[in-house]
Design goal:
58% of the residues lie in helices and 0% in strands. It is mainly alpha-helical.
């Protein structure tokens, strides 16, 4: 197995590699030594992926702050996420939808 820490890769490639490792570990076909090596590589990849996610979150927060340092958050709605007009939704259902929204 090659050491993945020597060459940086994109996040998607890291996730794909993690999925491959999980499949190999779940197959039960690896020897104890190979399973341990695969597990160690998975831990390294997981830590790398988490660090990338943390860095991306910090960048998004920095870009989303207003001039006074407060978080200026605008909900993201993709083209398939069109919300119905709340005036057309019965009051009880509109309140339920608002409870499902994240607090940020």
């Amino acid at each position: 197995m090659s050491d993945t820490t020597s060459s940086p890769q994109d996040f998607a490639a890291t996730v794909e590699q993690l999925e491959t490792i999980v499949e190999r570990l779940e197959s039960g076909e690896l020897s104890l030594e190979n399973a341990l090596t695969a597990f160690e590589q998975g831990v390294r990849l997981t830590r790398d992926a988490q660090q990338r996610l943390d860095t991306a979150e910090l960048k998004v927060r920095a870009l989303s702050e207003d001039s006074e340092g407060r978080l200026n958050v605008t909900p993201f709605a993709g083209p398939d996420d069109a919300k119905p007009d709340l005036k057309d939704v019965p009051k009880g259902e509109a309140e339920e939808d608002s409870k499902e929204m994240p607090p940020w």
